[in-house]
Write a structure and sequence with these properties.
The chain is mainly alpha-helical. It is built from six helices and no strands.
């Protein structure tokens, strides 16, 4: 396959994975991040932003360290699953994420975002 087509295939797939992750993640959370962010809720923005960055790190690592398209796709799907599972486990352990995010507790949103960034870095490193 010509390099430009390979690039476009990988880029399109990576963007689709990030968009798909956004949809899955915002459906898993018990609050409406987009609506909260539109209302100026910093906690929701920090949490969602950290999550998107964390997952994007995994996608970037998969792009850099896999030679096969389907291998890249598999790592992306596994990264998505891990990212969502960590969110579910972390919020159950902390037992207050919905109330804290809706109350615009920026510290709590930052913590959730940092947890997501951390797992994204670990995912990315594990792929290499």
């Amino acid at each position: 396959m010509p390099a430009i087509l390979n690039y476009l295939l990988h880029l399109t797939t990576a963007v689709a994975l990030v968009m798909g992750f956004f949809v899955v993640y915002t459906r898993v959370t018990p609050y409406d991040e987009v609506n909260l962010i539109r209302q100026g809720n910093r906690a929701a923005a920090l949490s969602l932003g950290g999550t998107l960055l964390g997952f994007s790190l995994t996608i970037a690592s998969a792009l850099m360290h896999t030679g096969d398209y389907y291998e890249f796709l598999g790592w992306g799907a596994l990264g998505m699953l891990i990212q969502v599972l960590v969110y579910v486990i972390a919020t159950r352990m902390l037992r207050m994420s919905k109330d804290q995010i809706e109350a615009d507790n920026a510290g709590f949103g930052g913590l959730l975002g940092a947890i997501s960034l951390s797992i994204g870095l670990v995912n990315a490193g594990s792929i290499s």
